[in-house]
Amino acid sequence: MKKIILLTILLFSLGFSSKTESTFSDLYYISKGSEIIQSVNKNITEKEAFQISTVAYEESEKYDIDFHFTLGIMTTESRFNVNAKSYCGAVGLMQLMPKTAKYIAEKYDIDYKNLYDIESNIQIGVAYLYHLKNKFGSYELTAAGYNGGSGGAKKYHEYMIGKRKADEIHNQTLNYVPKVMGYVYDYRKLTKI
């Protein structure tokens, strides 16, 4: 009970109550998300983990994206490292390419600040997941598209229905999708009420 009271105070200080009507269920999932984040990245502070979880939860709810899927993507992409930068230039928690981030921010009217900014990165990243989910339909193909673009998602779909062999798919995408979906499965078990 003490933890819920502290979480509520932290939520109010982060502005959560002004954006959505919080319920016990919301608080529960945000709290569990924060625990998951800290278990994956031991270097993250409790406050940062809670902020990441809160924004990820709110944005996932806003775009009707499974919160566990959002966490699975972030785990696979950056292991919740706010300052992550890949060799190809992808940035932040959700490893967004600047050009893609700019396009999504404009398309969904999101304030594009700085991709190292927690809120901005997650808002754009979850909007991108929404964009891909609308385009491809399933979470598996959304993950394939997030990792390998439209071509990667198309090839992965052909692989799923038996029209392509595994060696015809980019190895990174072939490994990426089950990894993300494995995290989603694990996180659902951890947050089961």
Task: Tell me about this structure.
By secondary structure, the chain is mainly alpha-helical. It has one domain: Orthogonal Bundle (Lysozyme). The chain has helices spanning 2-14, 16-19, 24-40, 46-63, 67-78, 98-107, 118-136, 139-160, 171-191. Helix 4 runs parallel beside helix 7 (118-136). It starts with a helix and ends with a helix.
Summarize the structure.
This protein has 9 helices and no strands.
Mean pLDDT over the residues: 85
Query: What's the number of structural domains?
Result: 1
Tertiary shape = globular
**SSE arrangement, N to C:** HHHHHHHHH
Rg over CA atoms, rounded to whole Å, is 17 Å
Helices, by number, come to 9
Query: What is the β-strand count?
Result: 0
**Quaternary:** single chain
What fraction of the residues are assigned to beta strands by DSSP? under 5%
Measured distance between first and last alpha carbons:
16 Å
CATH topology: Lysozyme
**Helical percent range?**
over 70%
In the CATH classification, which architecture applies?
Orthogonal Bundle
Class based on secondary structure composition and strand pairing: mainly alpha
Largest sheet: none
Q: Please report the first level of CATH classification, the CATH class.
A: Mainly Alpha
Question: Which residue ranges are poorly predicted, with pLDDT under 50 across at least 5 consecutive positions?
Answer: none
